[in-house]
Design brief:
313 residues, alpha/beta, 5-stranded parallel beta sheet, 11 helices, 28% helix, 13% strand
């Protein structure tokens, strides 16, 4: 891997280029976000893959795949988050085994030698960061989020296609990074140790247990000691991420120290990744995701739960 100079506008932002499997150098990709201008300028590059990772809560009645079929960024493949997850797990959207993940993304045409840009249609970075996170956790550094997503792309009058996209199977070599995810025992131990800060991406009402959880059998509230940063508050009106300075101030106001380890949680591991993206842009270096998130924690009979606003410790 070849690493270039850091972008002065975003701490931790690097430009990476990697030799492709056929020996030539592939596209230089800014991470963790790219602008619509950048994508428009590079769309069609043979080493670039674009992924529509739109996902909707079942209660909305919306079908992400149907919306993709009706219109997507030219050349984009559709990544079904449910299909990329471990269907044998008791909780939704958990990471599958590396070999399973590699097979499924390889079938989409995503390989280790590709630069990958992921977007969704939410204008809030609702689901695209989950695929970004999964790829990174499986060892693929050359992946970025389209800033503003499909909403900004279409608002600018850029091309939309309804043509089906089928790419040749690619080879994806996974390398699971255990430092980027946490399981239930780790989170239970952390309640006692306070070794890592916990940030919850759900709405304040769900965090405080003043509004119900959308899944049956899941208690309201939050993990003791957790802070609350609703994922939707991290973006501007056009869906682009707020500036690094604004994000840093927002995280600080929530009681988070970006210099210390942080674990992000949410309802089922999707919007926790949106907060992880914001933390990355803000300059945090040690961020993991609690994969089972609140659906797992709130379903247990014996896990401690706090309600109301975050307590100051």
């Amino acid at each position: 891997m070849k690493t270039g100079p850091a972008d002065p506008a975003i701490p931790g932002l690097v430009r990476v280029a990697q030799a492709s499997l056929n020996g030539r150098m592939s596209l230089d990709l800014p991470t963790p976000i790219v602008s619509t201008d950048w994508l428009a300028a590079h769309l069609g590059d043979p080493s670039l893959r674009v992924v529509d990772a739109t996902w909707h809560m079942p209660v909305t009645g919306r079908k992400a795949r149907d919306e993709y079929t009706a219109g997507h960024i030219p050349g984009a493949v559709f990544a079904d988050i449910d299909a990329l997850s471990d269907e044998t797990a008791p909780y939704p959207h958990t990471l599958p085994a590396p070999a399973v993940f590699a097979d499924r993304v390889g079938a989409l045409g995503l390989g280790s030698d590709h630069a990958i840009v992921v977007y969704d249609s939410s204008a809030q970075n609702f689901s695209a960061p989950r695929v970004w996170y999964m790829l990174r956790t499986m060892g693929h550094a050359r992946v970025a989020i389209l800033d503003g997503g499909l909403a900004k792309w279409t608002a600018e009058g850029r091309a939309i296609s309804s043509e089906p996209v089928s790419l040749p199977r690619a080879t994806f070599a996974p390398a699971l990074n255990d430092a980027q995810w946490r399981d239930l025992p780790a989170m239970q131990a952390n309640v006692a140790s306070h070794a890592e800060q916990v940030v919850d991406a759900r709405s304040p009402g769900r965090f405080q247990a003043t509004e119900p959880e959308p899944r049956a059998g899941v208690r309201g509230g939050h993990i003791p000691g957790a802070r609350n940063v609703h994922y939707a508050t991290l973006v501007n009106a056009d869906g682009t991420l707020k500036s690094p300075d604004v994000l840093r101030a927002q995280f600080a106001a929530a009681g988070l120290d970006l210099a210390s380890p942080i674990v992000a949680s949410c309802g089922s591991g999707i919007t926790a990744c949106a907060v992880t993206l914001g933390l990355s842009v803000a300059g945090a270096q040690q961020v993991a995701v609690y994969d089972g998130s609140w659906t797992e924690w709130g379903s247990q009979p014996d896990t401690p739960v706090e309600t109301g606003p975050a307590e100051v410790r």
